[in-house]
């Protein structure tokens, strides 16, 4: 769709002494002109500086209600005008964007049409953008539903496989030869791993739909809880975890806990042979916080640094390291739900720094 696909409508709110009839005539060859004198549904509004105050509140309402779709308002400034008009700043994202253009009388038609065309193209682009955003949301939603349904429905047959394998093991374990025993063990191990993956996928598909409210959350408390949950692993690896004082953010405490848990657990897990040292740092950068989890572990090859955030992407076999490959995909989804980004910087053999951003609590959400 582009701006020439349909005739665009302009509502003329110019008064009689603003040369209403002449402006109407000028426009009607090019646009559908609405002449109602109360603000209706149009693509663009033309007022003059005398009628502007009468329509101001209705126009404002229209602009605000349609936000983020752009509704341009053009003021025709008459020669005798003494009114001060200020143009909306096009860089400003928040409504009200009220006066988008001022055209001086007597009207120079090419100038007026050029300006209207620019504004209407912008409106058309904002409509198209909204359309694509809606489509994207819908397709995301159906993918989520698919992942949810698939993982949910796979649970039952998997449970059956696991329990029959266990039954065979319990009942005939003594009678089978060693090789069969080993095969059954592999099969049980495979079923267990598959359960882990299915549970992870279920969790992944619920991040957006079943996430809790975002509330003011102290990340120091979150980290404290995660340390307690990971205490066994910390002791086992004799890991040292240090932390800056962390900020309060607008977040879902359970999901933020999960985020820290996955990152810290990986930082300990992929530490190589040495005792892991992990640092959590926070740095303010404009309207957001950057939180980093820094380890001194095995590091990640630059070629793999993007794909590890995808579902089920792992860089190691199960014999080397256990895991389902869903942890970082969950982290990414959680961070994105909070309006942030996540990435890793690393040199193989020289540790990794996972950094994610979260909007600062005193900054407006975009
Ligand atoms: P999992 O740990 O269950 O395999 P993740 O999604 O958490 O899944 O991680 C994906 C892969 O990224 C891991 O298998 C590992 O190879 C790599 N990885 C994650 N964190 C680190 C880290 N701190 N240092 C080195 N490699 C890491």
TrEMBL record:
Protein EC: 2.7.13.3
CDD domains: HisKA
Assigned keywords, A-Z: Kinase, Phosphoprotein, Transferase
GO molecular function, one term: phosphorelay sensor kinase activity
Domain Histidine kinase: 149-362
Coiled coil regions in record: none
Naturally occurring in which organism (per UniProt): Natronorubrum daqingense
SUPFAM superfamilies recorded: ATPase domain of HSP90 chaperone/DNA topoisomerase II/histidine kinase (SSF55874), Homodimeric domain of signal transducing histidine kinase (SSF47384)
Substrates-to-products reaction catalysed: ATP + protein L-histidine = ADP + protein N-phospho-L-histidine
Pfam families (alphabetical): HATPase_c, HisKA
Protein name: histidine kinase
């Amino acid at each position: 769709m582009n701006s020439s696909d349909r005739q665009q409508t302009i509502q003329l709110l110019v008064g009689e002494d603003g040369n209403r009839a002449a402006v109407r005539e000028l426009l009607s060859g090019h646009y559908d002109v609405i002449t109602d004198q109360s603000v209706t549904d149009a693509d663009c509004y033309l007022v003059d500086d005398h009628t502007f105050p009468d329509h101001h509140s209705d126009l404002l309402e229209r602009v605000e209600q349609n936000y983020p779709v752009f509704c341009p308002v053009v003021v025709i400034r008459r020669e005798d005008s003494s009114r001060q008009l200020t143009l909306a700043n096009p860089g400003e994202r928040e409504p009200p964007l009220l006066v988008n253009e001022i055209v001086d009388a007597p009207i120079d038609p090419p100038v007026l049409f050029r300006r209207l065309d620019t504004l209407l193209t912008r409106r058309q682009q904002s409509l198209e953008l909204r359309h694509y955003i809606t489509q994207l949301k819908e397709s995301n939603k159906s993918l989520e539903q698919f992942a949810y349904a698939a993982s949910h429905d796979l649970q039952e047959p998997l449970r059956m496989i696991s329990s029959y394998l266990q039954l065979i093991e319990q009942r005939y374990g003594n009678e089978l030869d060693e090789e069969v025993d080993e095969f059954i063990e592999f099969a049980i191990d495979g079923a267990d791993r598959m359960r882990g993956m299915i549970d992870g996928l279920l969790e992944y598909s619920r991040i957006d739909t079943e996430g809790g409210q975002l509330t003011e959350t102290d990340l120091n408390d979150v980290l404290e809880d995660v340390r307690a949950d990971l205490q066994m692993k910390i002791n086992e690896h004799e890991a040292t975890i240090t932390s800056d004082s962390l900020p309060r953010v607008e977040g879902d405490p359970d999901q933020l806990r999960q985020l820290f848990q996955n990152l810290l657990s990986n930082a300990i897990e992929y530490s190589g042979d040495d005792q892991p040292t992990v640092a959590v740092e926070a740095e303010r950068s404009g309207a957001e916080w950057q939180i980093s989890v820094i380890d001194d572990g095995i590091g990640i090859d630059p070629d793999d640094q993007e794909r590890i955030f995808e579902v089920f992407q792992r860089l190691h076999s199960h014999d080397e390291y256990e895991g389902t490959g869903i942890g970082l995909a969950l982290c990414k989804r959680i961070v994105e739900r909070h309006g942030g980004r996540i990435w890793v910087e690393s040199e193989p053999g020289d540790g990794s720094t996972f950094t994610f951003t979260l909007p600062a609590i005193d900054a407006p959400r975009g």
